[in-house]
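Incident log, support desk, overnight shift.

02:14 A customer reports that sequence design results differ from what the structure should imply. Their input is reproduced verbatim below. On-call engineer (initials T.W.) acknowledged and began investigating.
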């Protein structure tokens, strides 16, 4: 089944050391309100390593957001040592009418990310 983007926030986690999606990883989504990070939503990645919508029925607004990926717990469940107990990715939403997809490419000792579509 193809992934259809809607306006909002999503992520996809791929374990690049195995080439497989990182299913079951807890990801927290937060927004910066003044000087305080406020929780919006937490979810575990699905069988394809995705969280398709962090906003539920809520609306995306311009501002600073971050995803906090619980990589240490996920790798521990796989019985794999990792250097990173969590990965935090901060990003800015300037156009709330667009969908914002922030993927994480992950291995036990490195990671990268990019602005997806």
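02:41 Re-run completed on a clean worker. Output:
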């Amino acid at each position: 089944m193809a992934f259809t983007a809607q306006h909002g926030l999503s992520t996809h986690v791929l374990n690049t050391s195995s080439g497989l999606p990182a299913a079951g990883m807890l990801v927290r989504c937060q927004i910066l309100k003044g000087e305080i990070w406020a929780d919006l939503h937490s979810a575990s990645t699905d069988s394809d390593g995705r969280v398709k919508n962090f906003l539920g029925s809520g609306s995306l607004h311009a501002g600073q957001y971050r995803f906090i990926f619980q990589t240490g717990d996920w790798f521990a469940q796989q019985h794999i040592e990792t250097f990173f107990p969590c990965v935090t990715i901060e990003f800015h939403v300037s156009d709330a009418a667009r969908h914002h997809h922030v993927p994480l490419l992950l291995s036990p000792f490195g990671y990268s990310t990019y602005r997806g579509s």
